[in-house]
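lol so apparently i was supposed to do this last week
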Amino acid sequence: MAKKKSKSAKDANLYYPIDSIVQNANVKEYENLYKKSIKDVEGFWAEQANTLDWYKKWDKVLDDSKKPFYKWFKGAKTNIVQNAIDRHLKTWRRNKIAFIWEGEPGDVKVFSYHALNREVTKFANILKSMGVKKRDIVTIYMPQIPELAFAMLACAKIGAAHSVVYGGFSVEALAERIADAQSRVLVTADGGWRRGKVNDLKGIVNEAISRSPTIEACITVKRTGHEVFMENDRDFWYHDLASLPIANSKCETEVMDAEDMLFILYTSGTTGKPKGLVHTHGGYSVYTSTTHRMVFDIKDEDRWWCAADPGWITGHSYIVYAPLINGSTIMMYEGAPNHPYPNRWWQMVEKYGITILYTSPTAIRGLMRFGDQWPKRHDISSLRLLGSVGEPINPEAWKWYHSVIGDNKCPIMDTWWQTETGGFMITPLPITPLKPGSGTKPFFGIEADVVNEEGKTVKPGEEGKLIIKNPWPGMARTVMGDPKRYVDTYWKDYKEQGWYKAGDSARIDKDGYFWIIGRIDDVIKVSGYRLGTAEIESALVSHPQVAEAAAIALPHELKGNAIHAYVILKAGLVGDAALDKSLRDHVGHEMGPIAKPESITFVDSLPKTRSGKIMRRVLKARAQGLPEGDLSTIEE
Ligand code: PRX
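anyway here it is w/ adenosine-5'-monophosphate-propyl ester bound
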């Protein structure tokens, strides 16, 4: 697929990989392999699954008898920990570094696979001693510290599911997710470091627990040492529990069905409360490890750094599970990229000899803004591959990343995927000629297309809806407790064809390259973080002075999108600067700082349809001075 070209070779609009990348790539060819994988999807995934350990292999690769509730590797027995830890202990990798972790203040911890197993086993026994059983859901709300990964793996090891809530979320967001998961046990920390300050997670937890009657026990890891309130008989310090005899390093990994739940992860949707998407042990293990190995060309000598937060799907799949299954050495960093100076990341790339860096366009734009002198201070020549995820990357940021960080020699893997998909769906391989801003082509076994309302493929270059035509092992199996919502959200629009609707608009160019444009529903991507307009609006309306609210996204140079809110106050109230601040702070307190609106406009009415739905597209068009489109259905 890749033509022979010299370093940084590019023609009019294609960037070709350098020779050494092509020669050493794990996957050396795309087109034929892709065709083969689509012709025999089950065969392709069976071949990948055979590279993993199983307690018992499957009777059937794909069971599609209850579409769209697909089942993968039916009849197989496994546990993701069997592949992420246990199998490595039997090989030389027992002594390989699994995690290198650096805290924001500069403290460092390193864990071999042997040490990782010890820590996970200890944590597993502690959870068991708290009464956690197979199929319980443990909520985890933590900063980016190694114990976050240990807690996730400990749950998996004993057959419990985890629900990780992003540490940047706040009281109501956490309470709502605990309530939906009906968690009895919560794992947290006394705080984490961010820009030199302590993020008071335990304070938020205490307030959230007061709204969460299901929580019986809360385990707190001491990270910052600042004073926190601990309630008798409910709150336990992790280090106290770890010193008890029960916290020993003997614990069998629970044998699970391939389709048993591994975790739920909440994600924002169009309406109401967030959806808990369910991922499973078997298919997810196969899908994440295969995509990671092939797309990022994983070699044993690599040092892999996915600079996302483990609290989002990117962290679940590509900080914790896939790299561990592939036996990689993983870098994990606690804090902000520009603290204390904008060279922090580059310093760590140099210090640890990072070979692959995977991050978001927002982070790239944020670091680019400080200028080339910061990365140029460091020897970052260990980098071999780069990656981008979470939002479309603008060509300017892509080119900076490619030339200044990648020295024109590191291909950029712009991976399109979602919480729902479990792993990469549209992505280059290291051998793929690249176009800045395009995720290029579908991964093996994935049939993607861009279609109109009727399901007809649109012409090259035309915008349409992104759909996936066939199932894949990493797909979310359902929305926890609400299978109808799963069907309605993803499978209803193209029911006849049986296609998955991604919720993004996209176009395909004449070379078959995919270009993601953005969300077509009421999901807002702020700095690559996924938020629902409904959640932001409900946080605003929970303020005593607000009657109604609408939130929209408008383009933002750094964050990709920023939130703008329109608020109708209760009768007789008048908006002013103090109320503006109070509302923004209130959203920050309920949802988290990332959800704080950039601006608030006080209005007397909102454009609505006759059925009472807020027409956010009208607000958006008006704010941007664009045509407002068809207004015939407007009521107010
Ligand atoms: O809009 C797409 C955008 O992020 C959405 C999924 O968000 P989330 O579930 O939080 O998962 C993010 C990390 C996988 C998608 O519907 N998105 C994700 N990756 C890209 C992207 N948009 C453009 N380019 C990408 N590479």
